[in-house]
Design goal:
Blueprint: H1 2-18, H2 23-70, H3 74-126
Coiled coil: 27-71
Keywords: Coiled coil
Length: 137
Amino acid sequence: MLARERDKDLFDRLKSVGGVDPGFEALRDLEQAKLNLREAKAQYAAQALAVNRVKLEIDGYALQLQELRDRSTPELEDEIEIEHQSVPLLQLQDAKKRYMGYLGKIKAQMLQQVALQFQAWKGQQEGSVTVAGEWPR
């Protein structure tokens, strides 16, 4: 009954503002608007319920994940230990490769320097002039 009284008050206000009788179409439009509002509220409630269900599901998964992280199994501990051991081993192997590369460069530079010094010495012995980096003639 309360809704009917509000509708009547709204209808009377429309009459007083416009000065004309809103008529049957205005009442039909008002009823349609109220129906649309009810449907929209119902859809909103359904969507809110769906969102809450998904939130609960996510919370359940988060709880399971936390329990798995908190639970320590021997296999998991072994995997973690192997992983912790393999990281320094990989770093050591990488450092060894870089050091071997560095030694290779130093060796090549030293051989080149010795070869140039030998050429210079040989050139002095033969009395010919050599240019650095060229073979004596």
